[in-house]
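Aggregate trends can hide what the representation actually does to any particular protein. For completeness, the protein is quoted in full, as a sequence line and a line of structure tokens.
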Amino acid sequence: MQGNKPARAAILLFGKDVPPYAVYIGRFKTPTTIIDDRMIRGTLFEVVEESMRFILSHVKVAFEISGEAERLEIFEYPLPALRELLLNTIVHRDYTSPVDTQIKIFDNAISFFNPGKLFGDLTIEKLQRDDYQSRARNKLIAEAFYLTRDIEKYGSGFIRVRDEITNYPTMEFSYQESGDGFLVWLKYQQQKISSSNTREGITEGITEGVGLLLKEIRLTPGRRIPHLTQHLNRPQKTIERWIAELKRQGLIEYRGSKKTGGYYGVE
């Protein structure tokens, strides 16, 4: 509280009213061709989860056969790195700026932009070292996400991102101050499709969104297309296309009657 009013952090984290700040997130085929996009508003906790769901729905997944029945999912980007960059964008943006946070997903790159340059004496050069000291513009927001164990209080996010992408041979991690904000990129030249970092072994297709659908079916088996369409907030035709691909690869199956049955993961 500040006097008799809730602080900005309290409103952003727990407020019931729709805040003026938003996350604009889109899937781009080219810088000017948008395939899918969304404007996400809510409490910061809700924004993080909804944004992560949208990102996952557009992340490609390779399926590697490593044994007679074992399938290994290899995501286009390391998911912990994506979540870390998303949290960094939400927690450290300048909330006095009316500019929206922007996340853009391309065929082989993803960018995160948040208004507000680096805070305090933190510089690009310092961020490139593993001994940098974090500076929190929004201490109460950072504290809240620390208490939910989403972030480290004293900041080691960029170190963890660098660690995560070491298993992605052509992945590039870059960042810069851009205009009145901070811009981060993850890019790659060749998508990782094997756990051995080579093209050896058997893979089963690379598709967008199927990883998110497969996870949902495994978490809530027995669901039908209307539930999956509503829960994942995707068009029915998109869900049907993803289901057809997962069935083709033998990752899911339909059990029961047409009226009461549902989809289950195949172990």
Confidence is low (pLDDT under 50) at residues 198-206.
